[in-house]
Amino acid sequence: MALIETRDLGRVYDLDAGRVVALDHVSLDVDEGDFVAVMGPSGSGKSTFMNLIGCLDRPTHGTYRLAGTAVETLDANGLARLRNREIGFVFQQFNLLPRVDALGNVALPMVYAGVDRRTRREKAHAALARVGLAERWHHRPMQLSGGQQQRVAIARALVNGPKLLLADEPTGALDSRTAAEILWLFQELNREGVTVVLVTHDADVGRHARRLVRFKDGRVLEDHRQTPLDARDLIAAESAA
Ligand code: ADP
Questions:
Q1: Which domain holds residue 230?
Q2: Given ligand 1 and candidates 48, 53, 219, which is best to mutate, with the most ligand atoms within 8 Å of its CB?
Q3: Which residues have any ligand 1 atom within 6 Å of their CB?
Q4: Rounded mean pLDDT for each run of 10 residues along the chain, 241 residues in total
Q5: Closest Cα partner for 106 from 51, 161, 187, 59?
Q6: Domain at 149, CATH number
Q7: Is residue 139, in this structure, part of any structural domain at all?
Q8: CA–CA separation, 159 vs 140, rounded Å?
Q9: What's the predicted TM-score (pTM) here?
């Protein structure tokens, strides 16, 4: 079954200066378990597309089904619930709360989901262990390296058990060795069944996905499957360099 199903999805901005067609009739299915790299030049519609499939924005035309739910039928609360249950977000700048330790940052989405405190702590611990940071749960973001902060952000994205990880340039702020390690974490999570959609401007990152979708002028210019490179080879190459 397709986890993501868009039909003629579009987003138009009406500005004083005229209409901007940010996304133009995009029909795209993403199967559960896939790993998609989204590429394309600046202004091609990548963020608009990610905001729509992340239920952070509404289309001006077309339809979107996420895990079988017709997203346009939901009100703001329904949208937030669906987002919280099905989607984990990972950003280039980690977006962690600076005064809160790793455990508190990871537990945050469960506060919104109404999970009790004890369960929150257990699940947050498990998610931190999953990304290799069990020992660092009490560290604040400032006390962690960039790669560790991104791991905390990934643990936060995973904590509600989402089917879909949406990542916007998740390796963009990291040195190349650390970026390779984060890429490997995404590949492992994908192998465990999490669907990944990742925006990148880096062709080397894109080659680690199973499928590459390239946008141009708000449309899908190219969409092909590929044999993904193994990020462990990249880690080895970066270590040797
Ligand atoms: P990308 O992520 O590929 O750089 P975007 O999705 O951000 O592209 O933008 C696609 C187009 O939509 C661009 O022409 C951009 O200027 C326009 N756009 C994006 N967001 C807005 C907005 N809030 N208001 C007006 N135009 C926008």
A1: 34-47+81-240
A2: 48
A3: 13, 15, 20, 22, 40, 42-48
A4: 95 94 97 98 96 95 96 92 94 95 95 89 96 96 96 96 96 94 97 97 96 98 97 93 81
A5: 161
A6: 3.40.50.300
A7: yes
A8: 18
A9: 0.95
